[in-house]
């Protein structure tokens, strides 16, 4: 009899755990690609803005007439107010049709600190909204894509997502472009090309070395007939023109 009661208690405890994890997971929507039959990819650059690296990346994107997404940290984006070079590149991003994305404020690990994460994401969203506004564009929090630092994903993020009114986290394919000296130009391009598929989201970084591999990578994709999409609403490059976002 006692044994049966224990079994019953354990069963109910497991059921409660299951229900809670289901509830917290249900809001945690992650996006890994555009579900599409068209030849289209997204280029995304993390960890900026940086006056020198972004200036070069923007020049290359302009040369090939490509729209991308920049996931920026608050520590770097707050230099918008004090460093003219940073203001210049962020203003260029907005005016040249790229998307400003949120990459947290401190770029930490947040697994035990979801309240801090909510605070940071809201703070960076405010900075992004302000940068758009300075350039005469109105953007809402829900339209700002967010990518977690180190592509961290865990259960509690469902709570964070509901607090920042963020509809999805943006993931994608990450190679080792950030270890440029070890990886080198050819290997960086190879990693991306080996993972090329329709709707792919490529994760790259705002680094000076991007100028070494980015032109050839873009040319290779364009030769194959690929187009480039981003998260800028009401624009030709907006993802919804190609399909739906999915995992
Ligand atoms: Zn990062």
Please give a structural write-up.
The strands form 3 sheets. Strands 3, 4, 5, 7, 8 and 9 form a 6-stranded parallel beta sheet that branches. The chain has a two-stranded parallel sheet with strand order 1-6. Strands 2-10 form a two-stranded antiparallel sheet. The N and C termini lie far apart (47 Å). The protein has helices spanning 2-26, 51-63, 74-77, 84-95, 114-134, 157-163, 180-194, 210-223; strands at 30-31, 33-35, 40-48, 69-72, 99-102, 169-170, 173-174, 201-205, 227-229, 244-246. It is of the alpha/beta class. Zinc ion is lined by residues 46-47, 103, 107, 149.
Summarize the structure.
Helices cover 45% and strands 15% of the residues. With 247 residues, it is an alpha/beta fold. The protein has a single domain (30-246), classed as TIM Barrel, CATH 3.20.20.370.
């Amino acid at each position: 009899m006692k044994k049966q009661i224990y079994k019953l208690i354990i069963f109910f405890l497991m059921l409660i755990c299951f229900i809670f994890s289901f509830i917290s997971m249900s809001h945690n929507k992650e996006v890994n690609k555009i579900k599409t039959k068209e030849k289209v990819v997204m280029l995304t650059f993390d960890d900026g803005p940086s006056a020198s690296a972004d200036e070069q990346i923007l020049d290359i994107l302009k040369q090939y007439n490509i729209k991308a997404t920049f996931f920026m940290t608050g520590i770097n984006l707050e230099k918008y107010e004090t460093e003219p070079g940073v203001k210049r590149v962020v203003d260029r991003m907005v005016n040249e049709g790229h998307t400003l994305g949120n990459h947290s404020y401190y770029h930490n690990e947040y697994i035990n600190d979801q309240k801090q994460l909510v605070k940071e994401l809201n703070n960076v969203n405010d900075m992004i909204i302000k940068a758009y506004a300075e350039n005469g564009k109105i953007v809402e929090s829900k339209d700002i894509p967010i990518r977690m630092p180190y592509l961290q994903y865990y259960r509690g993020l469902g709570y964070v997502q509901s607090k920042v009114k963020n509809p999805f986290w943006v993931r994608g394919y990450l190679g080792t472009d950030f270890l440029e000296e070890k990886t080198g130009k050819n290997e960086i391009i190879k990693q991306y090309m080996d993972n090329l598929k329709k709707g792919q989201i490529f994760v790259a970084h705002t680094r000076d070395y991007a100028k070494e591999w980015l032109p050839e990578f873009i040319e290779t994709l364009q030769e194959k007939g690929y187009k480039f999409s981003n998260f800028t609403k009401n624009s030709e490059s907006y993802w919804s023109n190609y399909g739906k976002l999915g995992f």
